[in-house]
Amino acid sequence: MEKRDLVSGIFLILLSFCVCVMAYKLGLGTGGEPGAGFAAFGIAALLGLLSIWMFVNAFIRAFRQGNREKADAEKIMWKKPLLILVILTAYGAFFNFLGFPLATFLLMVMLVWIFGRRRLSVALIVSTLTVALSYTLFVVALGLPLPMGLAWFFLGG
Amino acid sequence: MELGQYIFFGLQVAFQPMNLFYCFIGVFIGTLIGVLPGLGPTGTMSLLLPITFHISPVGAIIMLAGIYYGAQYGGSITAILANIPGEASSVMTCLDGYQMARQGRAGMALGVSTIGSFIAGSLSIVGLMFLAYPLAKAALKFGPPEYFSLMCMGLVILTFLTQGSMLKSLIMALLGLLIGLIGLDSFTAKPRFTMGFNELMDGVGIVPLVMGLFGISEVLLNLEGKIERDIYKTELTGLFASLKGWIEAKWAIIRGTIIGFFAGILPGGGAVLSSFVSYALEKRFSRHPEKFGTGVIEGVAAPESANNAAAQSCLIPLLSLGIPPNVVMAVLYGGLLIHGIQPGPFLVKDHPDVFWGLVMSMYLGNVMLLVLNLPLIGIWIKILKVPYSILFPLILFFCLIGVYTVNNSVFDIYLMVMFGFVGYLMRKFDFEPAPLAMAYVLSPILESSFRQSLSLSGGSFAVFFSRPISVVCMALVVALLIFQIVSSSFTRRRLRNAQGA
Hints:
Chain A has helices at about 1-25, 40-65, 80-100, 100-115, 120-140, 150-155. By secondary structure, chain A is mainly α. The longest helix of chain A has 28 residues, at about 40-65.
């Protein structure tokens, strides 16, 4: 726990420092006529102070505990969440190019497989159904302007 | 118009076929997400925000509110039958509800929970009707200093009530305030913290932020562990409970309603807080506190009544003062703003159709929920069996499409994914996302009332300590902060002594 507080403390101190600098550059104004950076500077300064407090507290606790509770923190499992985030970002990146139906199909195949390690046939069926139903709902019923991408190109649209 | 005329007007609005339809859709989806653990009302409401662009403001608000109070009903089904709180507000229901199911009294637990929720919800709406209107009238006299102090108080109380460290919650609230400042400054039209992205000129959208923090991060967290769903197979008989059961539950329902109603109004309060408080008080004043946790009906009736009462009464500060008391109301606040409606004292005057239509629709929504929950309970149990390997990809997909359709912008997808990652890390580092989301929503009003107050006073901060309402709020803020500092140092010292001994 202390280690995480130390890491987040350092990050927040740096963040508050950066925001303070940016807010100062925006202009603080005066008390009677506050500028665009006035409130932001105050909030960031307060954030910095609280982060320093958290950091110092965590440091003291870590110092007192020594090696006693080194194994207290559960490990963060980065692999799967990061993989999901990459897939979601890729969906955004290729959404306009591939179009809504194809991008959604590929997204669902990958997600169903990652979440459940299910057979490819199950993933394909779920993905096809999702595309068909969501197309009917969003494009046909609600008339949302979703990109058709390559599919649109091949259909000559 | 008199109150009676307003009520009649509200009924006319609520009974319009389309509004009835949206109310049904809201409570139906609410029950559904209440039954399914994983996605809460906050995520669902933000997921459906883009869809509400295509419907009338009244219909949209009726539907969004329906999701919240509907989720309170649905949450109890999972809590009682599967020992999994479908919603955070159903955690306490698990304790006695599941035990009752194991003893073959699942029907009674579900019946008392549903009918108790209906009674509590209906009574809470009456309270809302009689309190919100005069409060809105009184709030017309509020100036920028009062608004600033009131919002500060709300934020501090929220950070005080959240689980875990108050220091971390305060940090999150400050971070939320900073995120809320991104975009064009409303006074000088200068771009702030936009990093050169034109998409950020209007600020960070509420939909990518809330969906990321509450929707995506929730799914990411669920990736780590396997959620066990051991649905208790039992005959669902006695849904309307025996006379003895009702006699045992009646005072718990009444006490739960009262506690829930007031806990809902509190800044930082809501369904979760009310269910915890009512369960603790019910146990405290019970003649047989030792039986709590073994399957007593009061242990189900009190928290379920309380969370439903709170889910309706928390609309009071939002509608009458324009201050969301919790994060779900903050999303509703965002929904109202998107439709060009400013919640607050002028809402009742300028948009009586929204205010009274919503209040009256909640009566109808409660009746719909009664019908949805008792006879259709078998269907909800079947839905509970949908595998997570299909459910979670669908949630992620709906988040992606939902966020894209707000502005037809891929940038919002990136923003949501980023907030999803931030939300995931926050929970891993024991930071609560709720204060961040609420502070983000309040940030623009907080800043403008702060700057207006300073301009009015010629730069003197004494303006916040010279007006009665403002003084009371600020005094409470200071008292809470001091109390927290003193109590945490006291706890630390005691721990150190215990370790040393």
